[in-house]
Design goal:
CATH topology of the largest domain: Immunoglobulin-like
Number of helices: 3
CATH superfamily of the largest domain: bacillus anthracis domain
Number of strands: 16
Distance between the termini: 147 Å
Mean pLDDT: 78
Number of domains: 3
Order of helices and strands: HHHEEEEEEEEEEEEEEEE
Shape: globular
């Protein structure tokens, strides 16, 4: 071995020795293994995020729900359920009295009265929460006693937290201006009585005697009388034959003014049904035509139509 080969051999050994001592790792892109994330940490984060989102939406929905519920309560107290009474109020047909009586710490105020020949309605405010009027009686100056038709929750109350309004309705009304006596014996578990003597102005109604028969299938309906009053239009009739349960409908006059169904009732006497149906107030004149669209509980989709000539 010459001198050159000897030098190259030594250099080669020294390079190999250095390379063995200094190890520089090299990874191919195909062989790199990335570290896997900690799934338990990620799962915990996802659970916390889901919980926070759930709480957020629960707060939003609760807030919206409370607002909607309060708005419903407000609207239900600010809007009358009986649109006939609303029209009577708008037409100035309410006698405002604001007469109060206090018995056993409970103050009751009659704030308004609507009286026509169809019905007499009193707006009664009770000072106190969760107090109910269970019964009431009404007579006028001629000792005529009126039949209690119902007691319902009222509307248009300024102080809804400490005052509840009741609408007490009686069937019929006086023919002329009179004095009525309202007597409330008991409010919730508290005995009275609370007695009010109120002068009222009777709103005159207009009666149209019809006495005309109409045939509907196997039933004859005889229209006896139609009354146009401040708080309602009433049709009195007799049903003879198959029973018809009138549950909805409307009436309209020749001017196509529409009057909506309020409620109705029937009394059975020897298989002959005598009843009346109330609609919102409507003006009728002689030679008018009243169209009555009737929906019954047996066929609520196909209405019955009756054209009633007004004479």
């Amino acid at each position: 071995m010459d001198f050159k080969d000897n030098i190259e051999s030594k250099l080669d050994k020294n390079l190999k020795s250095i390379n063995n001592k200094i190890s520089i790792p090299f990874y191919s892109i195909n062989t790199v293994v990335l570290a896997k994330p900690d799934n338990s940490v990620k799962s915990l984060f996802q659970k916390k995020r889901f919980l926070l989102i759930t709480i957020f939406f629960a707060i939003v929905l609760t807030t919206v729900g409370v607002y909607a519920y309060n708005k419903f309560l407000y609207d239900s107290k600010s809007l009358p359920k009986d649109s006939g009474l609303k029209q009577a109020e708008e037409n100035g047909s309410i006698n405002y009295s604001n007469y109060s009586v206090t018995v056993n710490g409970i103050t009751v105020t009659v704030s308004g009265v609507v009286s026509d020949t169809i019905r007499t309605v009193l707006y009664v405010d009770v000072k106190g929460r969760n107090l109910d009027i269970n019964d009431a009686s009404l007579i006028d100056s001629s000792n005529t006693q009126y039949k209690l038709d119902g007691i319902s929750n009222g509307y248009n109350i300024q102080d809804t937290k400490s005052t509840s309004r009741k609408v007490i309705e009686f069937t019929g009304g006086a023919q002329n201006d009179t004095t009525i006596e309202l007597k409330i014996e008991k409010i919730s578990n508290i005995w009275g009585p609370w007695i009010f003597r109120l002068p009222i102005k009777v709103i005159q109604a207009k009666d149209f005697v019809i006495n005309k028969d109409f045939t509907i299938g196997n039933t004859t309906i005889k229209i006896k009388k139609i009354t146009c009053a401040a708080s309602a239009l009433k049709i009195d009739y007799i049903l003879n034959g198959e029973f018809l349960n009138i549950c909805d409908g409307y009436v309209s006059n020749s001017s196509l003014t529409k009057s909506n169904f309020l409620r109705g009732g029937l009394v059975s006497i020897d298989n002959i049904y005598e009843g009346s149906t109330l609609f919102t107030p409507l003006t009728l004149e002689n030679n008018d035509l009243l169209k009555w669209i009737i929906y019954t509980s047996y066929n609520s989709k196909k209405p019955i139509e009756i054209i009633i000539p007004i004479r």
